[in-house]
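Much of what follows relies on a compact textual record of a protein's fold. A complete example follows; check for yourself that the lines match position by position.
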Amino acid sequence: MTISQKLEAKRKEAVRTWTLACEHDGVDQKNVFVVFSDGNPYAADAGNAAVAYREAAVTYNKLMSVKF
Protein backbone atom coordinates (compact mmCIF):
# COMPACT_ATOMS: atom_id res chain seq x y z
CA MET A 1 0.00 0.00 0.00
CA THR A 2 1.42 3.39 -0.99
CA ILE A 3 1.56 6.40 1.31
CA SER A 4 -1.22 8.12 -0.63
CA GLN A 5 -3.38 4.99 -0.37
CA LYS A 6 -2.82 4.91 3.40
CA LEU A 7 -3.78 8.58 3.59
CA GLU A 8 -6.94 7.91 1.60
CA ALA A 9 -7.81 5.00 3.92
CA LYS A 10 -7.45 7.33 6.94
CA ARG A 11 -9.67 9.91 5.22
CA LYS A 12 -12.36 7.33 4.51
CA GLU A 13 -12.28 6.12 8.12
CA ALA A 14 -12.63 9.69 9.38
CA VAL A 15 -15.62 10.28 7.09
CA ARG A 16 -17.19 6.93 8.04
CA THR A 17 -16.96 7.52 11.79
CA TRP A 18 -18.03 11.18 11.47
CA THR A 19 -21.10 10.05 9.53
CA LEU A 20 -21.98 7.44 12.15
CA ALA A 21 -21.60 9.93 15.00
CA CYS A 22 -23.69 12.55 13.21
CA GLU A 23 -26.41 10.07 12.28
CA HIS A 24 -26.57 8.83 15.87
CA ASP A 25 -27.28 12.35 17.16
CA GLY A 26 -29.38 13.44 14.19
CA VAL A 27 -26.91 16.14 13.14
CA ASP A 28 -26.21 17.21 9.57
CA GLN A 29 -22.83 15.68 8.70
CA LYS A 30 -21.97 18.71 6.57
CA ASN A 31 -21.51 20.76 9.76
CA VAL A 32 -17.91 21.68 10.42
CA PHE A 33 -18.28 21.71 14.20
CA VAL A 34 -20.71 19.77 16.37
CA VAL A 35 -20.96 18.69 19.98
CA PHE A 36 -21.99 15.06 20.23
CA SER A 37 -24.15 13.77 23.05
CA ASP A 38 -22.48 12.05 25.99
CA GLY A 39 -24.16 8.77 25.02
CA ASN A 40 -22.92 8.77 21.42
CA PRO A 41 -20.93 5.55 21.00
CA TYR A 42 -19.25 6.83 17.82
CA ALA A 43 -18.03 10.22 19.10
CA ALA A 44 -14.64 9.04 20.40
CA ASP A 45 -13.95 7.03 17.27
CA ALA A 46 -14.84 10.02 15.09
CA GLY A 47 -12.48 12.25 17.04
CA ASN A 48 -9.66 9.71 16.98
CA ALA A 49 -10.08 9.07 13.25
CA ALA A 50 -10.05 12.80 12.51
CA VAL A 51 -6.83 13.26 14.47
CA ALA A 52 -5.22 10.24 12.77
CA TYR A 53 -6.17 11.60 9.34
CA ARG A 54 -4.85 15.08 10.16
CA GLU A 55 -1.55 13.67 11.40
CA ALA A 56 -1.22 11.46 8.32
CA ALA A 57 -2.00 14.41 6.03
CA VAL A 58 0.64 16.59 7.72
CA THR A 59 3.22 13.81 7.42
CA TYR A 60 2.28 13.19 3.77
CA ASN A 61 2.62 16.89 2.94
CA LYS A 62 6.03 17.03 4.62
CA LEU A 63 7.20 13.99 2.69
CA MET A 64 5.92 15.40 -0.60
CA SER A 65 7.78 18.68 -0.03
CA VAL A 66 11.18 17.00 0.41
CA LYS A 67 13.46 17.52 -2.57
CA PHE A 68 15.57 14.50 -3.46
Notes: Residues 3-65 form one domain.
